[in-house]
Amino acid sequence: MTGLWHRVENSISAGMPDLCGVGHNGVTSWVELKALGSWTRVLGLRREQVIWLRRWCRAGGRAWVLVKVGRAVLLVNGLDLWDSQTDVKGYTREQWIEAATCYWPGNVDWDELGCVLLS
Q: Is the separation of the CB atoms in 32 and 17 below 8 Å?
């Protein structure tokens, strides 16, 4: 994956995502990482994470949730998950796939992922 990426461990700003990346064109993206053992209706995002992602996206920034479920990986835009600031939608497996900007049922296409995140 292209660009420069940093893992963020931050106890100062509640809800800040796990990764920050910047592309050669100056586009910056934040990514929250989630790993689930099986398909579930909710991702288990904390209230602070939901608020952070929504505020960032509403201000014109780019933020995503990258979800691994078994071997499958989905990339979901930060604004596409919530009905309100504090309520995470309950989705079926099919709805998660439909909501995803990208979906890889097996191996992730890292070039495609990098292009979506940083362009």
A: yes
pLDDT in 10s for each residue of the chain, 119 residues: 778 899 998 777 888 999 999 988 899 999 999 888 888 766 777 888 888 888 899 899 999 999 998 889 999 888 876 654 445 556 778 888 888 899 999 999 999 998 899 98
Domains in the chain (CATH in brackets) are 4-118 (3.40.1350.10)
List C-alpha distances in Å: 114 to 1, 51, 82: 5, 25, 24
User: For the whole model, what pTM was predicted?
Assistant: 0.86
Q: Which residue has the tokens 């990098």?
A: 114
- What are the tokens at 92? 């079926």
List Cβ neighbours of 22 (8 Å cut-off, separation of 6 or more): 3, 4, 28, 29, 118
- Of 76, 75, 87, which Cα lies nearest the Cα of 50? 87
